[in-house]
C-alpha cells in the first residue's frame, strides 16, 4: 500500500510576492516626493545650523516632525532677538501647534485601513507627513494595495529618511550654501505642494479642500496664528462632510 506524501507546509511565496508588489508600488508613488524632500530639506538643515543645532539634533528633530513649516517656525523662534533660556520650550510648543494638523490626516487614513492593534496602527501612520498623506490617501481611495498597513508604513519611512538625509546635507553644507540658494529652496515649497495637489485631478473633493485651505489659512493666520493650520482645515473638512451628506446619491 502506497502511503500518501506528508502535507507540504504552507508557502510564504504569496506573502513575499505581495510585499514585493507593495514595495514597487511605494517606489512608483513616492519617488518624486523622496527626491524632492532631499532637496527641499537642505534649507531646513541650513536654518538648523544657523540656529546652533548639532547634526544629531537636526536629524532627530527632522525625524520627529518631517514638517518643514514646523521646523522653520521653531528655528525663527530660536534665532529671534531676545531669545531666552526658555526658547527651547517655545520652539517645541510652536512645533506641536503646527503639527496638530496631523491629527486630521491620521484620522482620515485610519478610517480607510483594516482593523489593527495599537502597535501596528502606530507603525503604519506614525511617520505620516503632509506629503506622504497626499500620496497615501488618494491611493487608499482609488486602488488600495494588497497590504495597506505595510504600504502606509513604507511611504512614511521612505519620506522621513529622505527628509533626514536632506536636512543633514543642508546642515553640513550650511557655510557654503549662498543665501540666494536657501531662498530658492524655500520658494520650492509652495510649488511642490501645488504639484502634489494637481496630481489628484480625479479627486475633485480633495482638490477643492486643498485649494480652500491654501486660500483661507493665510487669510486666517493674522487672527489665529499657528492655530490657523489646525482650525481652518477642521472647518473645511466639516463643511465638506456636511455638503457630501446633503448631496443626494445618484440613481
UniProtKB/TrEMBL annotation:
<dbReference type="InterPro" id="IPR011606">
    <property type="entry name" value="Brnchd-chn_aa_trnsp_permease"/>
</dbReference>
<feature type="transmembrane region" description="Helical">
    <location>
        <begin position="210"/>
        <end position="243"/>
    </location>
</feature>
<feature type="transmembrane region" description="Helical">
    <location>
        <begin position="55"/>
        <end position="75"/>
    </location>
</feature>
<feature type="transmembrane region" description="Helical">
    <location>
        <begin position="149"/>
        <end position="169"/>
    </location>
</feature>
<keyword id="KW-1133">Transmembrane helix</keyword>
<feature type="transmembrane region" description="Helical">
    <location>
        <begin position="21"/>
        <end position="43"/>
    </location>
</feature>
<keyword id="KW-0812">Transmembrane</keyword>
<feature type="transmembrane region" description="Helical">
    <location>
        <begin position="175"/>
        <end position="198"/>
    </location>
</feature>
<feature type="transmembrane region" description="Helical">
    <location>
        <begin position="87"/>
        <end position="111"/>
    </location>
</feature>
<feature type="transmembrane region" description="Helical">
    <location>
        <begin position="117"/>
        <end position="137"/>
    </location>
</feature>
<protein>
    <recommendedName>
        <fullName>AzlC-like</fullName>
    </recommendedName>
</protein>
<keyword id="KW-0472">Membrane</keyword>
<dbReference type="Pfam" id="PF03591">
    <property type="entry name" value="AzlC"/>
</dbReference>
